[in-house]
Amino acid sequence: MKDVVYLQKYLLSIALGPVQDFVQAARRTRDLWFGSYLLSDVSKCVAASLVEDGATLIFPHKESLSGSQAVANKILAVFEGESVVRVLDRAHQAATTWLRETAQTAVQALQRELSSRRDVFDEAHFFRQVDDFLEFYAAWVPMTDTYDRDRRRVEGILAARKMLRNFDPNEGARVPKSSLDGVRESVLRISTNDALIERALRRMGIRPGEALDAMGLIKRLSGQRPYPSVVRVAVDSWIQAGMSDERFRVQLGRVSETLERVLIEAPELDVVSSARGRDGSEVYVPDHYENFPYDGKALLEGFFEQEEFRQLQEQYPGLADELKRVVTRLREIRGCSPQPYLAVLMADGDRMGVQIDRMTTPDDHSNFSYRVSEFARRAQDVIVQHRGVPVYAGGDDVFAFLPIETCLRAADALRKLFEEKVASAVASDKPSLSVGIAIGYCREDLGYLRQLAQQAEHEAKEPDRNGLCVLVQTRSGGDPIRVRCRWDEDPVPRMERLAAWHQRSEIAHTTGYVLEQIGRLYGGAADEDIVAGELRRALSRRTVAGERRFADDVMDDITSLFRSRLLARQALQDGAATAALQDCASWLKFGHWLASHAEPEAWQNVEIRAGEEVDT
């Protein structure tokens, strides 16, 4: 009689990295996007390898492996077999093989451009860094009849394993560190006086003097798809508003032709970059970006005083004069220059861990994962529909760049999508989506903009989750304008209404600052009646253009805002009345900022009649 082999069922948990440090190592939007894309595809490779070996995926859902949405760096699966270690080894090997193939593609692209100079690239050190990049942590436990207990146990073991990190010796060299994060050594060896090499690298998106390690080089060279600049997102509303004018469309075509000449004749200068792939395709952007597939910084006011343009004047004076002439004419037709601000949106699910802890079977957890995957897939469409550029949409996380005119409605649409796809399937303690939006200067440091968006997302979750937080950091500096509330208050229509009131000169631009001063005067000592009286007096004596008093609808709207904020504050703290008044001040300052920095057409169709007051 043959021996009977009894197969054990295991619950596997895998975590891949690095995540935050790797993604944040970015100077360009493409660096951010490809960092997220690369980690997602590594996770998909690992998950696919597990499926090939007979494992059943719980998270991410199996269908997300073939979709366009990203997946998180966490994998949970059930495997029944004799050897878990061999299955995990094959999954690890699948990930490293994919990384090696991606790295080899980048090397081939570099060698095609630098065929005459192989000495500017340290290939051996490049692949050592690639092989040392991936962090792969795994844990597994035999399954019992209690899935929730098994899951908590395996996650605890995995967390302990991640604390015991592998610290292999560094085989670095005495060369400059990466310009992106300063962690690993550069694999480029470029002489500062080699103009031909610098020109070739500039065509590939590598600036003169920029040092890149292996993963930074892969971010720039992999594939044929550049990623739109944040400047292109910022100027999009200005371009779209002008497209209704035939003269503007014709002149925009002339600007595009001139910028294309700059790309061809002066690729070594940092004057313009293209949002079109080397194969002629445009990807990960709204369709209308094809009207102007360039970064757009040449359209900004003050560009002709920047160092990039001065270099173009010195080396290509005729081309510089032509660029200045066609752009100046385009601004004249439009009547203004583009506003140099954009929105950086980050969203994250609330109470997701609570829901997962309640899952009593793998099937329940897998079904929940499917709903989360559907949200991620549709979230990308929501961003593009609002003229934005998605950087990452995986699980319950979303990261995107948007024009300031559309960011609020995009946030609201994401919140509603999350309710439809995820929260609707939960009976109690429903999960929610907190959204943080950072609005900043489009030529600000990309890492700083991302940190500001992370701060906004964190504040959206505090103290009671299900929130929206908007931080506006002006180019002049100072403390950002901060607006935070819960989605229960239906904040987006009110925000747009305040912008419309300001744009129509129904509210004086100083009103927010007056309320702010009153709040500081009283501190936390005033009660509700005193503060409400001060609010009424401030509104009654503040005049607007033409010495006209506030309209009744405007006063009712601001008073309703105060009552709404008061209800929210009373549930959280003492001194709620003055805190609510400070909130009103911030909302009015935000409304004025939106009105003065967005395209006028953005608020023309806003319904300005105040809706019913929302209880908080």
Automatic annotation (TrEMBL):
Gene3D superfamilies: 3.30.70.270, CRISPR-Cas system, Cmr2 subunit, D1 domain, cysteine cluster (3.30.70.2220). Pfam families: Cas10-Cmr2_palm2 (PF22335), Cmr2_N (PF12469). Residues 340-473 form the GGDEF domain. InterPro entries: Cas10-Cmr2_palm2, Cmr2_N, CRISPR-assoc_Cmr2_N, CRISPR-assoc_prot_Cmr2, GGDEF_dom, Rev_trsase/Diguanyl_cyclase. Keywords: Antiviral defense, Nucleotide-binding. This is Type III-B CRISPR-associated protein Cas10/Cmr2. It comes from Alicyclobacillus mali. The lineage of its organism: Bacteria, Bacillati, Bacillota, Bacilli, Bacillales. The gene is cas10.
